[in-house]
């Protein structure tokens, strides 16, 4: 079947599986599905296996290096980290949550949200259609969920407003992964839009690639493998605090080895990768500069 010529989502990696879903989103779903079978999972996502089954997907990243072996457990740690960030943000007053490039995210259904949280999921219409088939009549755990269709021909910030987003209310934003698949000018544009729409008290969470490690023996082979399917980490930075400060946000990268669940899950890989796994990406959170 020829690939669709319709515009692609600005949030999706270029290499997409059936239904327009990024392979990266399906790899995360696979990690969640495996995690859900553990006796005490860090992430409970009962829809993940259904996403994989419905998509007919049972693969993983190309290659068989250290990063590929680490990736499922790292993805679970990343999800748990941003789960905790979003719940903390919501409890501190950000009752408006925006998931940019939401992919197969099910947080609107699986997190224990405080009362009155409105979750907006911004993603390509084809991905939303696929998700709704799987989610069907699943019960929300947040107060309200709104899907916002955004593709390469539309301005997602205008569509977000049209969907009921209120820029006068504090917002918790999340870019769990898609930022680094974009090119630097695209990142500048979407972060500027996020900043423009943010009221005092707003917060953000984002995964950023560490440019200082891209040529390391851990990361470089993984990048070479991803290039075979048309994926690349296009946006990389060296100093996340400085970069986000220059764009209007006070941010800080987490030290994963201070988080007990991360230490427990990632420590078995240390003889293979050392501490490099925690240094090749930044799990970054922060607040709007000048906010109270």
Short description:
The chain is an alpha/beta fold. It contains twelve helices and eight strands.
* Percentage of residues in strands: 15-25%
Q: What's the domain count?
A: 1
Order of helices and strands: HHHEHEHEHEHEHEHEHHHE
First-residue to last-residue Cα separation: 54 Å
Assign the CATH class.
Alpha Beta
Oligomer: single chain
Helix content: 25-40%
CATH fold field value: Rossmann fold
Going by CATH, the homologous superfamily would be Vaccinia Virus protein VP39
Mean pLDDT across the residues is 90
By secondary-structure content and strand pairing, the structural class works out as alpha/beta
| Count of extended strands | 8
For this entry, give a set of tags:
8-stranded mixed sheet, 12 helices, globular, alpha/beta, 292 residues, Rossmann fold, disordered N terminus
Structure description:
Strands 1, 2, 3, 4, 5, 6, 7 and 8 form an 8-stranded mixed beta sheet that branches. The termini are far apart. Helices cover 39% and strands 15% of the residues. Helix 1 crosses helix 2, helix 1 (23-35) crosses helix 3 (66-91) and helix 3 (66-91) runs antiparallel to helix 10. The chain contains 12 helices and 8 strands. The protein has one domain (18-288): Vaccinia Virus protein VP39 (Rossmann fold, 3-Layer(aba) Sandwich). It has helices spanning 23-35, 48-55, 66-91, 107-110, 125-135, 156-162, 184-196, 219-227, 240-246, 260-266, 270-273, 276-279, and strands at residues 96-100, 118-123, 144-149, 171-175, 203-210, 236-237, 249-253, 281-288.
């Amino acid at each position: 079947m020829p690939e669709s010529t319709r515009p692609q989502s600005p949030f999706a990696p270029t290499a997409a599986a059936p239904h327009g879903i990024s392979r990266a989103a399906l790899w995360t779903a696979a990690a969640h599905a495996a995690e859900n079978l553990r006796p005490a999972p860090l992430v409970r996502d009962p829809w993940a296996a259904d996403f994989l089954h419905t998509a007919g997907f049972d693969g993983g990243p190309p290659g068989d290096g250290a990063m590929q072996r680490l990736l499922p457990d790292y993805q679970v740690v990343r999800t748990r980290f941003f789960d905790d960030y979003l719940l903390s943000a919501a409890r501190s007053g950000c009752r408006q949550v925006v998931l940019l490039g939401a992919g197969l995210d099910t947080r609107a259904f699986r997190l224990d949200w405080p009362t009155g949280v409105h979750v907006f999921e911004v993603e390509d219409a084809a991905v939303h259609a696929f998700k709704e088939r799987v989610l069907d009549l699943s019960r929300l755990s947040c107060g309200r969920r709104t899907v916002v269709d955004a593709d390469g021909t539309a301005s997602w910030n205008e569509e977000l407003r049209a969907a009921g987003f209120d820029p006068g209310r504090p917002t918790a934003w999340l870019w769990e992964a898609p930022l680094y698949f974009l090119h630097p000018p695209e990142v500048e544009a979407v972060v500027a839009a996020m900043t423009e729409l943010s009221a005092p008290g707003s917060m953000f969470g984002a995964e950023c690639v560490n440019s200082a490690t891209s040529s390391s023996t851990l990361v470089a082979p993984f990048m070479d493998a991803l290039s075979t399917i048309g994926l690349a980490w296009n946006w990389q930075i060296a100093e996340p605090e400085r970069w986000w400060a220059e764009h209007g946000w006070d941010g800080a990268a987490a030290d994963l080895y201070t988080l007990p669940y991360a230490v427990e899950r990632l420590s078995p890989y240390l003889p293979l990768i050392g501490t490099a796994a925690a240094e090749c990406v930044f799990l970054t959170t922060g607040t709007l500069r000048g906010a109270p």
